[in-house]
Amino acid sequence: MKISVALCTYNGEKYIKEQLDSILNQTTKVDEIVICDDKSTDTTMDILRLYENKYPDIFRVYTNEETLKSVKNFEKAISLCTGEITFLSDQDDFWYPEKVSVMINHFLEQPEMMAFCSNGFLMNENSEIIIDHFTKWDVFEKYSAKKPHLDTFNFLTQKGNFSTGATMAVKTDFAKSTFPIPEVQDFHHDEWITLLATVEGKMGFINQKLINYRVHSTQQVGGIAFHKDSKYFKQIFDYFSFNDQNDFKSIKSRIKAQVEWHNKFLINFKSNSTQYQLLKNKFDIELKKNNTLLNQNFPLKSFVVQNIDKLLNKRQLKK
C-alpha cells in the first residue's frame, strides 16, 4: 500500500524540521511527502529544499505562484498525492513513531471506512506537553465511549467537528472526490472531508494519542484546547453531548442546527451536483425525522412555534 503525506507550509521555519523528522521516523515508512508552500517569506523553502535534496525519492516540494490560503492549499497538496492513503499534516506538530502504522492497520481492519482521525496531546511553543488542558478530542472520546453507535454526522452538524486535519488519514481517491472544497467563512478542509465521510458512517475515530498538536500564538485555527477546570470540563462535555432525548427543547435545537447548516452551506455549494445531492438527501431525512417527532409529540407547541418562526423568518430553509 502506497502512503502519501500532504503537508502545507507558510513561514514555518521554527518547527518544520521537528515535524518532518517525526514523519521520516515512522515505524511504517511513508512513500511520498507532498509539500505545498504558500509563498513563505522566511527560510521555510530553504529548509524544504535541503530535505528534498537529501530524500529525492520521498519529497516533492511545490511553491504556489499565488497565495492560496489553508483550504485551497490543502486541496492542491492532496490532489498531487499518488498514494492509496493520504495523511494530512500541519507544519508545526510532532508525530509519534507508531502513528502511520496504527492508522494503516485501522484501514486494513475496516476497509469500508474512508477516513480516520485520532486523539492527540497538546504541546506548547517549546515542544513541551501541556498537562493542564484537555482537548475536544478527549471530550469526544469520553462521550463516544458511552455511545458506541453514535451518529457522527449528527454530532458534527449539531455539536461541532470532532476531527482535526492534523490527526487525519483519508483514502486518497475519496479525498479527491470531495473537490472542490467550498470556500465558506469559518469552514475548513478537514470539516468538509469529515462531513462527507460521516454521511454514510465511514469516518472513524481512534482513541490513541498519535500526535503532539502545537498550540501557539500564531496558530491559524484554534478552538482545540480547554483548561482542566472540572466545572468547565463538565460545561464543555455537556455542550458536546448529543441530546437524543425526545423532549421539545432538544428536538427544536436539532432542527435549528440542521436548518443553519443548510442555509450556511448547501446553498453555497450547488456547483457539484453529486455532493450537493448527497448532503441534501441526508439533511432532508434528518429534518423530516425531527419535524415529525415535534408534530407527533408536541402538536400544539409545534403549530405555534412553526407559525411564529415563519413570521420572524427563523428556522426557515433558504432556496
Automatic annotation (TrEMBL):
It comes from the Bacteria. It holds the Pfam family Glycos_transf_2. One of its GO terms (molecular function) is hexosyltransferase activity. InterPro entries: Glyco_trans_2-like, Nucleotide-diphossugar_trans. Residues 4-155 form the Glycosyltransferase 2-like domain. Gene3D superfamilies: Spore Coat Polysaccharide Biosynthesis Protein SpsA, Chain A. PANTHER family: GLYCOSYLTRANSFERASE, UDP-GLCNAC:BETAGAL BETA-1,3-N-ACETYLGLUCOSAMINYLTRANSFERASE-LIKE PROTEIN 1. This is Glycosyltransferase 2-like domain-containing protein.
